[in-house]
Specification:
The chain has 130 residues and is of the alpha+beta class. 42% of the residues lie in helices and 15% in strands. A 3-stranded antiparallel beta sheet has the order 1-3-2. A hairpin with a 2-residue loop joins strand 2 and strand 3. The longest helix has 17 residues. The radius of gyration is 17 Å and the shape is elongated.
Length: 130
């Protein structure tokens, strides 16, 4: 996690420092999703693949690890674990990613389509809009 110039100069981390109260996690997640999809033009991903490919933990983590959000990030939910075995998402993150994706689709920045995966199963795939 980044530290401030004051923390750098002092050589210590302020354990009481709070996250920016004006920072909206959904807006941050939208930025992370757009960045992920923009780097992969010509490909489409399921929501699960997006969650696995993007590290959303800085959106919720705090330095002390004492908030419910920061503790939840450490929980493994629905098998969402990245290659290194670290938790990639929690139920909180997944819910907010779902909301962020819906807003991005509604705003036209991201396209979504249902794809028949065979065996009678369908999945929603997302890609960056042209």
């Amino acid at each position: 996690m980044p530290i401030t110039d004051d923390e750098f100069d002092a050589g210590t981390v302020d354990e009481n420092a709070d996250a920016d109260p004006d920072e909206d996690p959904i807006e941050t997640e939208k930025d992370l999703i757009l960045s992920f999809l923009s780097e992969r033009v010509g490909q489409a991903f399921t929501e699960r693949e997006i969650v696995l490919g993007v590290d959303f933990s800085p959106v919720y983590a705090d330095r002390s690890g004492t908030t419910p959000g920061s503790r939840a990030v450490g929980a493994v939910t629905g098998g969402l674990v990245d290659v290194a075995g670290d938790a990639a998402a929690s139920a909180i993150v997944v819910d907010d990613v779902d909301e962020a994706l819906a807003q991005l689709v509604e705003g036209g920045a991201v396209q979504a389509t249902e794809v028949d995966e065979g065996d009678g199963e369908t999945a929603t795939y997302y890609r960056i809009s042209d």
